Amino acid sequence: MLLIFIIFGIVIWLLSLVIAFFMYGRMDLLRAPNISIYILNSFVMTITALAIAYFMGMLIKKANMISLIVTPVSLGISFMSGVFVPLSMLGSTVKKIAGFIPVYWYEDLNDMFSGFKQLSKNQLNTVYTNLLLQLLFAVALIGGALFVVKYKREF
Questions:
Q1: pLDDT at residue 28, as a whole number
Q2: What is the pLDDT of residue 129?
Q3: How many Cβ atoms from other residues are within 10 Å of residue 21's Cβ?
Q4: Exposed, middle or buried, 119 (CB in 10 Å: 0-12/13-18/19+)?
């Protein structure tokens, strides 16, 4: 089941890249500053989103309860981590809480890229840290989901 999640997510991610190349023009998009980091960040966020979806899917037993729980959770995550409201408008307390949400680190990188054409060594360290944090969230969520699956099988 986890393999299906990963394959499906990668196919959707690749499809979104192809659509972006057609929408913005292949050469224009490839010449954009920091495009390789943007693409890597989107891939890591895709893996993290898949991990969240897999964890929620394994945790929630009834199919009709999934949308009831996932909708407010995803909207809450989006509001708190800077998807709907720019990070610059969020208060310091909200940002501290959002630090426990992987989407915050994705948005933090996107905000950082928008202001710079060339990244300094210090900024590249921030890039690697944010990507690593997203991946750690994904690993923790997948581990939690596998624990739930094992627990359900035993009991």
A1: 73
A2: 95
A3: 14
A4: middle
Dist. CA 85–CA 83, nearest whole Å: 6
Q: Which amino acid is at 69?
A: I
State the DSSP code for 62.
Answer: -
Contact at 8 Å (CB) between 127 and 116?
Answer: no
H helical segments located in 25-120 = 26-30, 35-59, 63-80, 92-98, 102-114
Question: Domain ranges in the chain?
Answer: 33-154
**Which residues have C-beta within 8 Å of that of residue 12, sequence separation ≥ 6?**
46
Contact 83, 111 (CB under 8 A): no
Return all residues near 78 (Cβ < 8 A) that are at least 6 apart.
84, 103
**pTM over cut 0.85:** yes
To the nearest whole number, what is the mean pLDDT of the chain? Answer: 90
